[in-house]
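hey m, so remember when u said the tokens were messed up on ur end? i reran from scratch. heres the input so u can diff it against urs
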Amino acid sequence: MRRMSPSVHVLAKSLRSSKLPPQRSADPPKAEKSLERRRIILASRSKARRKLLNDIGLKFTVRASNVREKRLIKTDCGALVTENALAKALDVAGRTKTGIVIAADTVVLVGKRIVGKPKSIKEALRTLKLLSRKPQWVYTGIAVIDVDNNRTYTAFDKTKVCMYHLTEREIKNYFKRVSPLDKAGSFDIQGFGSVFIDRIEGCFYNVVGLPMAKLAKILRKAGVYVF
């Protein structure tokens, strides 16, 4: 678990006081809650994140956040994605009476440049050319809010990704089969984009969009056990 930066701490304090339901109890969450008995809300429209949660048998509903992600690094990239994930979780928790809200934010860092989801195919083409020539760091921040117990948990992970050199023809052919517009970095490491990867250092699922081991640890603290 990473400690929240001052900016994240202030954001959590101000938004929690205005949006979250009043604290019901100071007691810690009860252990051994089954996945089916706790209401889980995923604050994301991401198909990849939905699949990851489905793969571990988590029953959940989707309620997308209306928060616009920040893309300006004030301290470091880990603090940025954590702050974005927390803002999304707080937004959805403020509209939720009971349950556990899961939110995440993923960006790709190349040098000092942040690469998010492309706004056009032309931008995606430029992005993938850049990523295939330089190592990249993928950061994902996660935030979990236990609405019933008024508890907030945050963490982030980072993974180094090295790709093979790609030609423009290869990239265009890839885009004919996969839309890059909903993907940070313009590619899917778990699909056709897997053939572009030379090696990674760190958590594979972090690149997909959710560092699953860290998420499972946080869920245990909230009283939800995958196993």
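this time it looks ok to me. Residues 77-93 form the longest helix (17 residues). if urs says something different then somethings off w ur setup not the seq
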